[in-house]
Design brief:
alpha+beta; Cytochrome-c3 Hydrogenase, chain B; 16 helices; 7 strands; globular
């Protein structure tokens, strides 16, 4: 097990058909180390606890602390913080695309392009907040507009070349499947290679399931559920209104014309998941607006609850203060929704069918990558 935990995915199969799926996780209760701390201490510790989606975790913690302390809103600073969250989404998606997607295709990972992107990513905070401190109670907005635009231009160019092979603008113009197929015919980038491989394997609908996107959660009702439910139950295996939902780039972008057209043919299968990630990669650097307004905070009796759209889906932080210190802290990550024992991945895996077993393993690995856990996973296949 890694320090961040591990997800175990066990498939039982017979005659090339998945008969049963068992998903379990060994993830540490990181939020427990925050109990007894002051809000200032919480905001210093959270970035050290979470290596992935660190900005989203820090922003959710900040919003929850501010709500519990009944602090006034900071519209301009929060707009800058949302910019950082969206840029972090680009970084997290790029990590998968440049390191994992080539491996799925039997090619070496593109570590040089990823290193260049990470170098750019580290500079964004410094041109938005004084001393690069974006997620403190006393953070000061200090925007260097010229430097920010330079970084965005460099980021856009890097994404265009490394992922879309110069075809980013063409990808942004796609509105239906026929247009997508035309774009794929003339592009040799890693994005086009992966989507072409999905078509060649006849996998566009692979993993299609009836699980739908998580609706907007009423903050007051969410607070009641998190307060009244065993934290190990809701935080590890969350449901809403007694149902499992997914919270992914696909559920976030599903209203787009292209995804609506693809969904009419393939449901929520493999093709749509990869396309949704590419849509966010293409559009975010252009306008930093792909997820704007998808953050909320709620306050009640020394309780602060924040909902933030992280790269992989909805992230929830809830804390309760007593005498100025954290009495209770709970976190629900998007992985807990998507890798729920009865969730979207489990239901998708149950539909897989391939012979020989290596084919089944390959299908499972592609689907797991598309749903995207935030920690390492171990895939086990058992023959019945």
């Amino acid at each position: 097990m890694t320090p961040a935990g591990e997800i175990t995915i066990e498939l039982t199969h017979r005659a090339g058909q998945v008969a049963a799926v068992k998903i379990g996780a060994t993830r540490p209760e990181a939020a427990q180390v925050l109990v007894g701390k002051t809000p200032e201490q919480v905001l210093s510790m959270v970035p050290l606890l979470f290596s992935l989606c660190g900005n989203a975790q820090a922003y959710a913690a900040l919003m929850a602390c501010r709500a519990a302390l009944q602090m006034t809103a900071e519209p301009e600073a929060d707009a800058a913080r949302e910019c950082l969250l969206q840029l972090e989404t680009v970084r997290e998606h790029a990590w998968r695309i440049l390191l994992d997607w080539p491996v799925l295709l039997g090619q070496p990972a593109d570590k040089l392009a990823l290193a260049a992107l990470l170098k750019l990513d580290r500079q964004f905070k410094s041109c938005l907040f004084r001393d690069g401190e974006a997620f403190k109670l006393d953070s000061l907005l200090q925007i260097d507009g010229a430097f920010l635009q330079t970084l965005l231009d460099e980021l856009t160019s890097l994404i265009d070349q490394a992922i879309f092979a110069g075809g980013r603008n063409g990808f942004l113009a796609i509105s239906d499947e026929a247009h997508l197929r035309d774009w794929l015919d003339g592009n040799t980038g890693v994005a086009a290679q992966l989507l072409n491989a999905v078509y060649q394997r006849d996998w566009p609908a692979l993993g299609n399931s009836p699980v739908v996107g998580l609706p907007e959660l009423d903050s007051a009702e969410l607070n009641r559920q998190m307060q009244n439910t065993d934290p190990l139950d809701f935080c590890r295996t969350p449901q809403w209104l007694g149902r499992c939902f997914e919270t992914t780039p696909f559920s976030r972008q599903q209203a787009s014309r292209l995804l609506a057209d693809l969904h009419s043919h393939y449901g929520n299968g493999l093709l749509l998941r990869f396309v949704a990630v590419l849509m966010e990669m293409a559009v975010i650097p252009r306008g930093i607006t792909a997820m704007a307004g998808m953050m909320s905070a709620y306050a009640a009796d020394d309780v602060g609850l924040a909902q933030v759209q992280a790269a992989r889906g909805l992230l929830i932080h809830r804390l309760e203060l007593r005498q100025g210190r954290v009495y209770d802290y709970r976190i629900v990550a998007p992985t807990e929704w998507n890798f729920h024992p009865d969730g979207v991945l489990a239901q998708g895996l149950k539909s897989l069918q391939a012979d020989p077993v290596d084919g089944l393993r390959q299908q499972a690995e592609w689907l797991i990558n598309a749903v995207d856990p935030c920690v390492a996973y171990r895939l086990i296949l058992n023959k019945r």
